[in-house]
Amino acid sequence: MKEELNIVGAFPIPLASVNIELPDISLVKWKYENDFKQSVYDLHTILEWKPTCDLILNYASNFLTNIGYEKRDLFITQMWANKYSVGEKIPPHIHTNSLLSGCIYFDNNSPTVFHNQKQKNLDMVSIPTNAATPYTSEIFTVEAKRGRMVLFPSNLAHSSETAKATRTTVSFNLLPRELGTPDGFNYVNLQNC
What we know:
The chain contains two helices and twelve strands, in the order E-E-E-H-E-E-E-H-E-E-E-E-E-E. The chain has 193 residues and is mainly beta. A seven-stranded antiparallel beta sheet has the order 1-8-5-10-4-3-2. It has a three-stranded antiparallel beta sheet with strand order 7-6-9, with no helix packed on it. It has a two-stranded antiparallel sheet with strand order 11-12. The chain is globular and about 65 Å long. 24% of the residues are buried.
């Protein structure tokens, strides 16, 4: 009798999404005014956006505790808006100096593409795949839906597909106010941030 092969996913990368009520995008002051518009990085300081920021912090905290982390008080380090014209896109990148990042979609245009960095390390020997699985795929796509918010680890490379119509998003980065363990040599208190 043959033993059945048991395949498990080691070190999966969590993503979360939820639909939220959109903030008033007309309050955004654009820093760059060309085919790719970008706002200042402090939208989280606008009083009218406080309800959205509170939602972000609540969902992000729940996300972390649901995947097994100790509950920590989080804060938004940067929050900005992007407005893409037809034909524009964002190349693959990560967000440094943060733990979690997120994106809020204001329309149904141009999904976010997440890139499997681990897969690159496995491609030391190249053989063709015959199925897209979590083990062979190099990308994971999240469709842009008006009102959808996506949360993901900041070190997860991501990009956008080329916009076929105007695409408006708000992005943000988060950190916990305390890093490490209070009685350890890795502890940092960021309460004043």
